[in-house]
Amino acid sequence: MNQSVSKSVWVIPGLLLAFLLVLGCVQLYSNANALFGAKNESSNYWITLSKTITPDNIGRKELIGFNANDLAELRKWSEVKQVFPIISNDFKVSADGGNFIPFYTDMYLEAVDNEAIDIQDLSAFKVENNVIPIVISREYLNLYNYGFALNQGLPQITEDFAKKIEVNINLTLKDKNVTYKGRLIGLSDRIHSVLVPKAFLDSLNATQSFAPKHRDIYTRVLVKVNDAKDGGLIAKMEQKGYESNQESLRSAKIKGKIMLVLQAIALLGVFILLLSVVLVINYIKMAFLERREEVSIKYALGYSPKKMVQQISFRFSRMLFVILLVTLGILSVAQYSLSKLSLSQGMLSPYLDPWLGVMALVIPFVMYAVVFRLIYRWLIRSWRLIT
């Protein structure tokens, strides 16, 4: 086995491994975004923030809630688009079914700007004729239908039927007790709460005796963000002691760890690639030195040094292109197999990310330019050694 073949035995597998690591990490990054969500400036995600309860702030609304300074700081976060404080009742609320449904429960009321409520038609969302329109979380209706109703032998109800039911809403205010009729007008997938019109709840809260330190304190805040799983957003929330949906936090942490692993693997691939290129360049230099007499004769006959280096660089780039095609073939099979696994839940494309094709076309040209420049500069500096 001559030296040329023995060099290829080590260089070609090294380049193949390097491209598998680098391009594989690009594809895995694309897969991670498909599974956990990609940051998109045009996307809108909604999260509800609250402060973590600790022994120091428990029962202290001025510490457990969001004040004006907290809201102002939230609005400055680059990851946040809009902030909507959630107002809660400052009086006792209860509900009963009257003679129609024999039940009684203490409850709570909250309110937020209509802009933040995910109900298309809010024309009926105003108090009229002693009737309070209510928006509840869809999860509340599901809990009743699939949990409480089945276990208690009660009838399950549809959304349309629920909108026809009226219940008594009993308010215990500072100066008097008032009873309204409550009527459901819609279900929210965004806010887990019992929502009433904001102007109505503000007017009732204004009749109560606020402690000065409790004025303009909001226990929860609804926030519109670009990406609920953004690592920077999660880091700021943890630093401030804010809580949100734990599934979003968990997904963000998993995604962050995956990205760190992919970056480490990609760096290893780049290192192997650079090492392989260095070996190839050294091999080319050795070939020139071993054939310096032949090169000198060609130069004397009019052969251009640039032409000779161009030919060698082109062969190297052509070899890279073939290796890249093999790499894409291996990754295509792996990606197709991965997309068919139940773990992917149908969220992964069976095809490679288009950026891999772009990289496969660009890399040979870049490496051609790099190798040509390095070899040619070396050859010119070393020309006296071979003439």
TrEMBL record:
PROSITE patterns: PROKAR_LIPOPROTEIN. Residues 267-381 form the ABC3 transporter permease C-terminal domain. It is found in: Cell membrane. It is a multi-pass membrane protein. Keywords: Cell membrane, Membrane, Transmembrane, Transmembrane helix. InterPro entries: ABC3_permease_C. GO terms for cellular component: plasma membrane. This is FtsX-like permease family protein. The chain crosses the membrane at residues 258-284, 316-335, 355-376.
